[in-house]
Design a protein that fits this description.
Chain A: One of its GO terms (molecular function) is ATP binding. The complex is a heterodimer. By secondary structure, chain A is α+β, with helices and mostly antiparallel strands. Chain A contains three helices and 21 strands. In chain B, strand 3 and strand 4 form a beta hairpin. The chains are: A alpha+beta, B alpha+beta.
């Protein structure tokens, strides 16, 4: 068992997210950083999309009641195993009674914890992710709270110390031009690209609202249409909203841009008052960026497999 | 009618959009027909209709150009008659603690509470699309006399089963949630259960009728 001693700001069970039910209003959920999810699982020889714990901000503590290998990835929330510091992108071994704690770090927002063999979580609507808004899936359909106990298979053999290089985090985000730019004031998309935006206080797993001295106010309207993580909506008040994994399935604000799939993970680490800037790319550049990220994972998986066989 | 158009949104979504906010009944039926055709195509992992659009999510994003053309072709081939909606009848307890906004609405609309219930139960609604919450169907169209803007301050918590109205739409909240619509009654029929194979009772295109329960609370 992994027992939650301190629940911290927000810890939840997440996997690669829920697909196939968007027409029924069921959102995607899932890890905000899919690459960190996959690396965490690869480090402990799990299936690549097994459920992990996503730790937001930190201030959380867990206790192992059985021995296991585990990994942490994502941002550096100054984790410790008992009193020894741990680093993101590495795998470690815990013995019964060991305590894993996460502090905080102003430059990081989220870390991921995977356990060898995976957490025993029931699948609901094709996924094991927690839908926090609709209160189902994951562990009891909610964020973890102190006292929760998560089952995992015990592993008494410590694996060799192993680390993986994580793709860098940055605050330069690549986007595709949105479909409603011609309905917005002239030059709105260029203004969006030239502005240095700040992440406002209003950021969550649903989305990040951006702010700047000069926003892009408008009175354009569109018919409701499907939206998804990565879509950048522009409400009339001119503050763009980057939709993230817990966003609704439809929306009625004009769409000024879409964050490319490869860069959406960057928002997992951007907290209030942090800056971000956007640059425009083509669809084929977006595909290339995703291929690059996937080959990073494939290379690590291959190296790790060779390692196991030796 | 202006020609509909199709565009890529992000890398993996293709949006098919009618050039109108208020599609005619025949356009809407044609859109439901297109949606059900698209739902049977294996190349998409999600197909999401709204009132005047349908969006598909591609398993292979690199094929987008082919599908943009193909979806327009499918629209042109859509037969009107091929769509048959499911019908639902829901019993609603109106007013009192079940519909805490009914009295205020009656005052602001210069109608009696009884009139509001009569009007609300007088039409057959259609699930225009599902969104906001799992199983939350946007039902249109509300009689003109009942059309009011959303509440200026949304409630932080609307109870599951609440029957609500706003603008030209009505809906039943399938779960507890914040919400800015006017609450006029309560319906006990479960609308969403994630443990079921078909988790949502309502599907896009379905028809819905409301029946007033005997224990409704209203002044004449």
């Amino acid at each position: 068992m992994l027992k939650v001693i301190k629940q911290g700001v927000l810890c939840s069970i997440q996997d690669a997210g829920r697909h196939g039910y968007r027409h029924l209003g069921v959102g995607q959920s899932g890890a905000l950083d899919p690459t960190a999810l996959k690396l965490a699982n690869l480090l402990v020889n799990n299936n690549i999309n097994d459920p992990v714990i996503e730790i937001t901000i930190g201030l959380a503590e867990f206790e192992f009641s059985a021995s296991t290998n585990f990994s942490i990835t994502g941002g550096d929330l100054r984790a410790k195993l008992n009193s020894s510091p741990l680093y993101p992108g590495w795998r470690y071994f815990a013995k019964p009674g060991d305590k894993l704690s996460f502090a905080t770090n102003h430059s990081a927002q989220r870390a991921y914890l995977a356990i060898q063999g995976g957490f025993a979580i029931e699948e609901l609507l094709n996924a094991k992710s927690t839908d926090i808004q609709a209160q189902f899936g994951g562990f009891s359909g909610r964020a973890l709270i102190a006292g929760d106990e998560l089952s995992f298979p015990c592993n008494k053999v410590a694996l060799k110390h192993l680390g993986a290089k994580q793709p860098e985090y940055a605050n330069e985000v690549r986007v595709l031009k949105g479909p409603h730019c011609d309905k917005l004031p002239k030059g709105a998309f260029e203004h969006f690209l030239q502005t240095e935006w700040l992440i406002s206080e209003m950021h969550s797993r649903m989305g990040s609202r951006l702010t700047a001295n000069q926003t892009i106010k408008h009175n354009a309207t569109i018919s409701s249409q499907a939206v998804h993580p990565g879509v950048v909506q522009l409400p009339p008040n001119g503050h763009p909203i980057v939709l993230l994994n817990d966003c609704q399935t439809t929306g009625g604000y004009p769409i000024i841009a879409s964050v490319i799939s490869a860069d959406l993970r960057l928002f997992s680490q951007l907290g209030s008052k942090q800056k971000c800037k956007f640059s425009s790319v083509s669809v084929s550049q977006a595909h290339q960026a995703m291929n690059k990220l996937n080959s990073h994972l494939a290379q690590f998986a291959l190296a790790n497999n060779n390692n196991i066989e030796q | 009618m202006i020609d509909p158009h199709c565009y890529l949104l992000g890398e993996q979504a293709i949006v098919f959009m009618l050039e109108t906010d208020t599609p005619s009944t025949s356009e809407q039926r044609r859109l439901f027909t297109l949606t059900s055709k698209l739902m049977n195509i294996d190349a998409f992992f999600d197909v999401v209709p709204t009132k005047s659009s349908v969006t598909v999510y591609l398993k292979r994003p690199q094929d987008y150009q082919v599908w943009i053309n193909q979806i327009i072709r499918l629209w042109d081939e859509c037969e009107l008659a091929s769509f048959t909606p499911n019908r639902h009848r829901f019993e609603v307890t109106y007013g009192g603690q079940f519909g805490p906004d009914l009295t205020d609405l009656a005052n602001s609309l210069s109608l009696s509470e009884h009139n509001i219930i009569e009007l609300h139960t007088s039409v057959t609604y259609q699930v225009e699309f599902i969104g906001f919450l799992p199983g939350f169907g946007y039902l249109g169209t509300l009689p003109k006399a009942l059309q009011v803007p959303r509440k200026s301050t949304p409630r932080t918590s609307v109870p599951k089963g609440s029957v609500a109205i706003a603008q030209e739409l009505t809906a039943i909240y399938p779960s507890n949630s914040p919400g800015g619509w006017h609450l006029i009654g309560l319906c006990n029929t479960p609308l969403f259960d994630p443990t079921l194979k078909q988790p949502s009772l309502l599907l896009p295109g379905d028809q819905v009728q409301f029946i007033p329960a005997k224990d409704s609370v209203c002044s004449k």
